[in-house]
Prior knowledge:
3-stranded parallel β-sheet; globular; TIM Barrel; alpha/beta; 6-stranded parallel β-sheet
Amino acid sequence: MTEAHDFEIFDIHQHMGSTGDAHGFVTDTQVSGARIDPAEVACRLEFMDRMRIGRAVAIPGHNYNRAAGAQATHAENEAIARYRDAMPDRFPVAVGIVEPLDQQAAVDELDRIVELGLKGVSFHTEFGGVTIDSPWMMKILERMGELNLVPLIHASNVVLHEALWRLGKVARALPDLQLVALEPFYTFDGLQECFFIADVAPNIIFDTASCSLVDLVIEFARQFGAERVVYGSQYYSQIRRDRWRPSRGTLVLDEIISTDHLSTTEKQLILSDNTKRAFRV
Length: 281
């Protein structure tokens, strides 16, 4: 049986920031925003080493404090670029964020994202106040295609803003743009729906973060090809090791590595190669 150390692991889904900034309740276990904090960095790298995650895509947290409007978004994109630059061996790729309700300012921010060397944009439309298929989202995504930026779109079916059918609609409208669905396997119903979405929208690849049932994800990879699945841990900033708990990301990784239903080549596609291909690493 293959072990974790036999694989290169490139995590597509790590957030630098808190889950609670925008709601006003950052706990003593988290760091506000994508800033570099020695305790946060140490905790994250220890987590990655324990999981044998060699590299990861750096993504700002979507709950950052937006009181300063577009300037707050500028600051988060600059911060995530600094995070990448501080540890390029562990975070060779970083992606930015834009807020669709900023409308044209969000489209314009894409050019700054390119200037910062960021390779994509992450969307969490639940927090952005729009749906995945809203008009300004479509304008932003069309411009991203022109700039060769990779869209990472949270689509978990947990809220209607982020329904998987909306992502499928976007993918059908922009067939030449590869989309990364973040957390699509979160719910059991969503996991089943992914089989339909994958069939009608071949330009979507699916992240394992928050997966509810790994056996079905493995079957999904067998049916649609391992090149349609990418490993993501959904790790958020932490500064207290004593608060660590076994996460879905940990269990998913263990099950992908240990399964007899995927070949070594298929496992390596999921754990690293698909992410490298998506971001041209």
